[in-house]
User: Fold these one by one.
Assistant:
Number 1:
Amino acid sequence: MQSLFELVEAYREEIHMEPRMELAGKLAEILAPELRIFVIFRVKPSLADDIMQETMKDIFTHFFKFRGKTEKEFWKWCYIITRNKTADRLRWDHKSLLYYPEEELIQLAESIGKEAHTVSLEDRDDLRQVLKMLGKSAPDCRGKLWDYYAVGLDYDELAEVFNLSYDAIRMSIKRCLELARDLYNGLK
Amino acid sequence: MNVEDTEIERKLRDLGSKMRIAVRSGEPTGLNKIVNAAKEASRKQYIRDMHKRRNELLAEGNVIPDEIASLPPLPDEEEERKPKGD
């Protein structure tokens, strides 16, 4: 199976329409689930697929503007487009903004099955409460911690996606984590 | 998992990894629509690029290769810009 960046390079080199479309489909199958996790935390669940379709249109309309040489650079580029498409939607439809309810997030995580993947009852309550408190006291922190720990973006990627310096985002995550820890310890 | 993780970090990471599995394994209809949107955008951009290439070759007085001699019409740019729901 080709890696993501092998597909990116194959797409760049392909000069015929049908095979290029097939490669677009393969790339979208890899990109969509990851980018969707970034989106579903920020908008009403019903809008996530709509935004994802718009994101894919932008990625494949502007594909040849991507000049990067690594998979990491490609992910960053895709996350920036995803962030912009999400922000566009929120600008003309403020009602779309609804942080994904904690309970549904956790239920979604549990929907994968009852085996080793199930979130324990204790973890579930802790996470729900911490995310809820963060949502009230520091919604920005809720998003950043989500992007760092759940979406899995590193400081470098977050800095580029949110147009901040590496140190600014590192310190921001550190402060948010301290706040989350305080909230979490307050539960104990 | 990072060995230096505190308990809350571990829980956040754990939830994230489970979410990723859930999103990957769920809603195939939604994923199909997203994949089709990608393919369609790729097709339209290909046609735009080939029209551009053909016009450049024509302007330079070059021979037009068979593969771009007859292209589908350009995708309607106005339709492309129209926001959904209008």
Note: The radius of gyration of chain B is 23 Å.
Number 2:
Amino acid sequence: MNRAQAGSAAGAEIAAMRPMLLRLARLQLRNETWAEDAVSEAVLAAVEGLGGFDSKSQLHTWVVGILKHKILDQFRRNQREIAVAADAEAGEEEDWDAFFRADGHRSSTPPAWGDPEAQATRNQFLAVLQTCMDRLPAPLARIFLLREWLELDTPQICRQMQVSSSNCFVMLYRARLRLRECLDATWFTAETGRQHV
Amino acid sequence: MSRWRIDCRAADRLLSQQRDAPLGRGARWVLWWHLRWCDSCRTVRRNLDVLARAVRRLDR
């Protein structure tokens, strides 16, 4: 395969990644327009940068890396709107009674999730996780993925979301709590720790 | 409750916070002590590890 053919094949591969990239951008940005813009910019940058890229096995990682930068660009461009939503979410009262009794003990024993990574059902687990992510309020989903997927540190997240560090910790905690609740209910049973979907 | 004892609600919050920033020495110690005897909180800690690993796989 000559250089032009290799470039064309990689370009087609990048185009085929578009649905996956869009899914990720929607999850992180929770806004259709911003997600479309981030993906279009990422695909364009990847195609333009193909000349300097020659490791086909890492194409996926490379393109996802570009998308992550484009997502952060969207955060910067839409910072005001994101900050207003985050501020409103941070001010929400959480109903802890569903999780803890008045004496501070848990209302119910959490089921052990085992290791879904090692199971043949890993992709199904990721699909359920995505469903649970979709159920999170947008500011909680954004802040959680900034931390766990984009792996920003907390001061960077506070800057992106324009929230105080204490609100940042509170929102990250709420996001994890709600995801755990959703995964407990959707994927596992307390009795067996087994998948039941 | 003694100053060295925390309940599951406080432990739950610290388990999350620990993933985002280093805990102070006192908080780290009371959490460690709580986890020694609390099976439920140890389960939550393992589940949080699973959750974090799964999220990092969302792009694969």
Note: Chain B has a mean pLDDT of 91.
